[in-house]
Amino acid sequence: MPGNNQNPDNSLTSRVPQHIAIIMDGNGRWAKQRNQPRFFGHKAGVEAVRGVVKACAARGIKVLTLFAFSSENWRRPQKEVSLLMELLYTALTREVSKLNDNNVRLRIIGDRSVFSEKLQNRLRKSEEQTENNTGLILVVAVNYGGRWDITQAARKAIEKVLAGELQASDITPALIGENLSLADLPEPDLFIRTGGEQRVSNFLLWQLAYTELFFTQTLWPDFSAASLDDAIESFSQRQRRFGRTGEQVENGEGA
Ligand code: IPE
Ligand code: IPE
Ligand code: MG
User: Which of 42, 93, 132, 187 has the least CB density, counted as fewest CB within 10 Å?
Assistant: First the structure.
């Protein structure tokens, strides 16, 4: 099928998503409702992460990708940015043993080259300390942008052309896909955004091509295992057609 490099799952029995990707939004508003500084909401957001990771592991989800800091979040007040970096550092330091208890393997995506050496070391160590776990793969996107991801994949392809390893005509959607951050993992089946906004905010642009979208007003610190189940329930009601007709999908045709 030309131009179709997603991983189509034709079965109507696929009711549980393999890969869930979440934009964890609404921490600031959650704090504001409580007359607290925004950072109070970010801290509460870490608690919500802990609950959702556990719930995903318990439900046999294969991959959970969380948007923790976008390439645009540098535009925030410098104080908030540095507090978020500190929170990332302390959360990773503190949570690694719990990830190990739950057999969770951590992976970081995004351009980490701009982070302090201390944070870069922490990111690497946390990945190493969980690398033998065989359960849920937890992907945390930090200084990540979908445009950055596609650009770095294109750059790798172009470097191969310049080195004479590939022709320009070898650059296909499949080749770009192979060079993206999550190339070795199934594409997200279910995308969740909390906090009420209905936009993608430069998250996984390429990988979301055929993902089912779920938006909820719930602010991230309030997002619970029950909220997760609501999203999974909505997902389970949908028919994924990947361009085909409903009848073809029902009859298992045109795969
Ligand atoms: C999401 O919550 C967390 C990050 C972007 C780091 P926000 O901080 O965007 O919360 P709101 O949208 O201002 O409520
Ligand atoms: C998206 O949330 C990024 C993360 C949750 C990390 P934002 O709050 O930054 O998104 P916009 O700016 O409202 O689109
Ligand atoms: Mg926000």
Answer: 132
User: Quick one: which ligand is closest to 203's CA?
Assistant: 2
H helices of the chain, in order, are: 27-33, 38-58, 78-101, 117-129, 146-162, 173-178, 225-236, 246-250
The pLDDT tens digits for 174-228 are: 999 999 999 999 999 999 999 999 999 999 999 999 999 999 999 999 999 999 9
pLDDT digits (tens, 9 = 90+) for 28-74: 999 999 999 999 999 999 999 999 999 999 999 999 999 999 999 99
178, exposed or middle or buried, with CB in 10 Å at 0-12, 13-18, 19+? middle
Please work out whether the CB of residue 191 comes within 6 Å of at least one atom of ligand 2: no
How far does residue 26's CA lie from ligand 1's centre (Å)?
Answer: 5
- b/e 22-44 (16+ beta carbons within 10 angstroms → b): bbbbbbbbbbeeeeeebbbbbbb
The domains located in the chain, with CATH, are: 19-145+186-238 (3.40.1180.10)
